[in-house]
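Entry:
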Amino acid sequence: MSASTLENVVIIGSGPAAWTAAIYAARANLNPLVFEGEPVGTELPGGQLMLTTDVENFPGFPEALSGPELMERIKAQAVHHGTRVVSELVKQVDFSQRPFTITPNYAGPVLAHTVIVATGAAAKWIGLESEMRLAQIGGGVSACAVCDGAMPFYRNKRLAVVGGGDTAMEEAMYLTKFASEVVIIHRRDSFRASKVMANRVLNHPKVRVLWNSRVSDVLGSDFITGLKIENAVTGEASEIEVGGLFVAIGHTPNTTFLGGQLDVTEHGYIKVSAWRTATNVDGVFAAGDVIDDYYRQAITSAGTGCMAALEAERWLAHHGLGETASVTGGSADADAGA
């Protein structure tokens, strides 16, 4: 690849949104190029599903499969239809002029008529070594109750939720369907969640709250067995037995590399047109968890990936582009209609 390579569509990301966009773009003969990223700490190509053990709510799989296996299958489908993959992170983009310029970590820059940003959002973790170790091996630590809470592993056990916002309240309420008890651990003496959500949780018979408390360690070697708790006011230490820990302290959209060139919401998610994936830059689209602070599910991400690819295809067609797999050198429409 070099700056002389002009792509029809470049997709940045490697979760369900990115690979679904790639499937649709490839089947439209757009020969998409995907920058799938590279491992950085706990962040792996494939997104948050890489930290998910059994996936039971993705259509088409009556038997549970692991998150990594699901991502491998979706990626394989995209590659089967002609998607090209670069295993590098994108360090910067230039949307100020056309064609757009995408600069990866190591290889030379690539030019593109359209770009789909599907870089997802990273879950915020407490930051404990034991927490991350158990999350990575499927040992009962998760950042998504809706994704994992219904699994047999968590049923009829005491489950802990860390957080105090609306997301934590929603996670706790969802878990009451399966848990024997849900314990919310919050570092303050009141929730920052909306009053309606907080009251719903506080009035639920299966929920109790440990106020002014923080998790200092997660117990268990292969599977979680309990938590060490520290009182934020007195410093008093205690332990509690739990069969699962759900960390619900928010997500951070992966948008730093964009350099502020796309409009974002107050929480940092990329703004798109209502029921569309178009951003404020014509020809740049966004999909998946990088635009979604509400659903955050693999299937909704895949859906918006489909939408972004269709919009990119129509954008190219409207501008008389995209008829060929890619254009190398010369003007943008040098091989149009070939």
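Residues 298-318 form the longest helix (21 residues).
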